[in-house]
Design a protein that fits this description.
It is a single chain. The protein has six helices and nine strands; from the N terminus they run ββααααββαβαββββ. It is an alpha+beta fold. Strands 5-9-8-7-6 form a five-stranded antiparallel sheet. It has a two-stranded antiparallel ribbon with strand order 1-2. α2 crosses α4. It starts with 14 loop residues before the first strand and ends in a 6-residue tail after the last strand.
Length: 225
């Protein structure tokens, strides 16, 4: 009998990994009666090295999403009750945000000066985790592993200090809208997370959406095993 191996490597499975991390989904005890945002969470086989809960990368992802949405209040940070319910239970997350924040004043779309913050976090660590999430969802969708490089780019709700990069992200989002407009939505908790794919093939392009405000595009190299 062949032993099940990790979705990211060929090491034996030692646990199951939620992709995206389970901590991004509000617990039922924090919700209104009848609400449930943990229905049929995606879970894939994992080794200890690639289990984000064991490395605390899962909470790091939550902190990064919170900082991104806090920097863009218009995106729905304060209005996003699902995310706020999680953070209410994790006050140390706000402490992490404050440690990495710098208050600034910027003009809004109507040229009014508003107070906001720049957040400095480990972008490389976060993007590596996003690649792992994309690979996990890929494995779940096709029942195959990705080989080679997976490229993930933010296209909405994840601004950087680079105007050039932000413009590139905006153009990529316009392109993505033409690809995914009529594609099915996968995920039983779409208020928290859902994904779409261009086709059910290894060379697919995938869109991952969190809290309806933060979007990423994942491009795979077309090889699988």
């Amino acid at each position: 009998m062949t032993k099940e191996t990790c979705y990211m490597c060929d090491k034996p499975k030692t646990s199951g990994e939620h992709v995206p991390p389970k901590c991004l989904f509000p617990e039922n005890k924090d919700l209104e009666p009848g609400e449930n945002f943990r229905k049929n969470l995606i879970k894939v086989p994992s080794c200890d090295e690639h289990n984000s809960a064991k490395s605390q990368d899962d909470e790091f992802m939550l902190i990064t999403f919170a900082s991104s949405m806090a920097a863009e209040k218009g995106s729905g940070f304060l209005q996003n009750s699902k995310l706020m319910r999680i953070l209410d239970r994790k006050p140390h997350v706000f402490n992490e945000l404050l440690k990495h924040s710098t208050p600034i004043k910027l003009p809004d779309n109507e040229n009014n000066v508003v107070e906001t913050c720049i957040y400095s976090l480990d972008r490389e660590r976060f993007m590596n985790q996003m690649e792992a999430v994309a690979n996990g969802v890929y494995f779940h969708h096709l029942k195959q592993k990705v080989t080679g490089r997976t490229i993930v780019n933010p296209i909405k709700g994840f601004q950087t200090t680079s105007i050039k990069q932000n413009l590139h992200n905006a153009k990529t989002k316009q392109f993505a809208e033409t690809l995914f407009t009529a594609k099915p939505v996968y995920g039983d908790n779409p208020d928290i997370f859902y994904y779409q794919v261009t086709e059910d093939k290894p060379e697919m392009i995938m869109k991952l959406v969190f809290y309806k405000n933060i979007e990423f595009i994942a491009v795979f190299n077309g090889e699988c095993r």
